Amino acid sequence: MGFKIRNYTNEDAPELRRIFLEARQKAFLWADSAEFDLADFDLVTRDETILVATENESPIGFIAWWPPENFIHSLFIDPSFAGKGAGKLLLNACLLELGRPARLKCLQANVHACAFYTAQGWEISGAGESEEGDYYVLTFY
Predict the structure, then answer these.
(1) What confidence tens digit (pLDDT) does each residue in 33-92 have?
(2) Which residue from 69, 67, 79, 64 is spatially nearest to 21, judged by alpha carbons?
(3) Residue 63's closest CA among 71, 79, 48, 74?
(4) Which of the following CATH numbers is that of domain 3-99: 3.40.50.2000, 3.40.630.30, 3.30.420.40, 3.30.70.120?
């Protein structure tokens, strides 16, 4: 696949809203997807740095993080492109910009995402509870 990574622009928002919604509807089987909304993308990524994965200039995924804490909040890929390498490219591009240690939280119910991060060298460094469920804190050193 000819994926490219670039900085986010406001023109990306409509497509990334759709991706964020559809990816969660497909992957977050433990959650009530009726509570998901297109506007969630704007709320979750507000004031964050965002990189976008594209194919043929069209957005197919994104990663968003909070630089002051080296904390990744979101990594989502269009379900039709899942498992094809775009997530790994986004994560690696983000890590080039983040200081160390970098951190993220991943719901324990999100088994596929937890496996993805540990396969990329992230280590489980803690755990906790949230309204969404139990989570792991993962760290990249």
Answers:
(1) 778 988 899 999 999 999 999 999 999 999 999 999 999 999 999 999 999 999 999 999
(2) 79
(3) 74
(4) 3.40.630.30
